[in-house]
Amino acid sequence: MPDAVCSVGGAWLTAAPLGLLLALAALSDLRWMRIPNALVLATVALFAVTHAPCLETADLVWRVAVALVIVLTGLAAFAAGLVGAGDVKFLAALSLFVPADDWVLFLFMLGVGLLLAVALTLGLRRVAADPGSHWKVLADEAGRLPAGVGLGLAGWGFLLT
Questions:
Q1: What residue ranges do the domains of the chain occupy?
Q2: Sign of the alpha-carbon dihedral angle for 27, 60, 15, 116
Q3: pLDDT of 109 over the 80 cut
Q4: Three state DSSP letters for the chain
Q5: pLDDT at position 13, please?
Q6: How does pLDDT run across 39-88, given as a tens digit for each residue?
Q7: What is the pTM of this model?
Q8: At what angle do helices 147-160 and 11-32 cross, to 10 degrees?
């Protein structure tokens, strides 16, 4: 693996595309209330190319194990109708970028991001709710929330710290 990718300066090689993927996931969830598998796979591929080769085996195994736990528990929550499957898969993919020592910070960012997403969603619906809108966040009458917005905000917050 080239030193540029594994160095501190190489972090920007990951930050720019990851930031774009986070923004696309948030926009997709606002627009269609879904996060496409292509964004999840692109996020995992970005990790595989930019992070995985630079990690110690134990750290890599830890990150993959955490992602698998998120998928398994998240799919149980999806089966119970509590969360969307795309949200679960994207969170698992995003978790690959979080070192073990940074989980408290990431969970804090996730909490803040989800709260901001709730506020944004409720604000948008209060101002511009339209059952005929092509933006699902405005047309959703079931009260669902686009968690991808919270995941995107959490990821951006984590990238900027």
A1: 3-160
A2: positive
A3: yes
A4: CCHHHHCCCCHHHHHHHHHHHHHHHHHHHHHHCCCCHHHHHHHHHHHHHHCHHHCCHHHHHHHHHHHHHHHHHHHHHHHCCCCCHHHHHHHHHHHCCCCHHHHHHHHHHHHHHHHHHHHHHHHHHHHHCCCCCCCHHHHCCCCCCCHHHHHHHHHHHHHHC
A5: 74
A6: 999 999 999 999 999 999 999 999 999 999 999 999 999 999 999 999 99
A7: 0.91
A8: 160
